[in-house]
Design a protein that fits this description.
This protein is mainly alpha-helical. Helix 4 packs parallel to helix 7 and helix 6 crosses helix 7. The protein starts with a helix and ends with a helix.
Length: 196
């Protein structure tokens, strides 16, 4: 039952936002009593944390699987972007912004875990790109990895990139192309232009 509650809450939070969805809404949607939810989660904060960490784990495992496919590093970044967007339902309700605003401690924990995970993935991706002569060999890998993470984090800021004004998928794709054009060799740019 706990897994079912997390699954339904995830779906509702990503569609309607963390703030908008109440425990009553989840119970009604599942056809169960609110008491049943409280048997598994002490309060909404606990449920939001379970949903957030479960989603993080799902996306992390998916990224690991994508990286095992041994695609070229440029294509790999596009596949990861599409996978993450699909799992976050294109974030049209800006759940990350709501998480940051209404659940700052959970958001802080998530950002820390994301940086650990994404930092390693991006460093691996950059090193692979340099080895394959797709990325310039004069880039500072650790610094570029942090730039990339900082950019990925800031494009989720709904005040900067209002989802009504800027389509989330367009923002992600534009940012990825911006990142890649800064580090690609001529060979890398050739591959990038085939993908965009």
């Amino acid at each position: 039952m706990e897994t079912k509650i997390v699954k339904k809450a995830t779906d509702m939070y990503l569609t309607l936002g963390f703030k908008s969805v109440t425990m009553d809404d989840i119970a009604n949607e599942m056809g169960i009593s609110k008491k049943t939810i409280y048997q598994h989660f002490e309060n909404k904060n606990d449920l939001v944390e379970a949903v957030t960490m479960n989603l993080f784990d799902t996306i992390s495992c998916g990224i690991d699987e994508i990286m095992k496919l041994d695609k070229n590093p440029i294509e790999e970044l596009f596949v990861i972007k599409d996978f993450v967007l699909k799992n976050l339902k294109n974030e049209s309700t800006s759940p990350i912004y709501q998480l940051q605003k209404y659940y700052p401690q959970i958001h802080k924990t998530l950002m820390s875990r994301q940086f650990e995970k994404m930092g390693d993935c991006v460093v691996d991706n950059l090193k692979k790109g340099i080895e394959q002569n797709l990325f310039r060999d004069d880039i500072n890998v650790e610094l570029i990895a942090r730039f990339y993470f900082a950019g990925m984090t800031s494009i989720k800021d709904a005040e900067l990139f209002n989802p009504i004004q800027f389509n989330t998928k367009d923002v992600q794709e534009t940012y990825l192309e911006y990142h890649l054009r800064g580090i690609c060799t001529a060979k890398g740019v050739g591959i990038l232009e085939q993908l965009t």
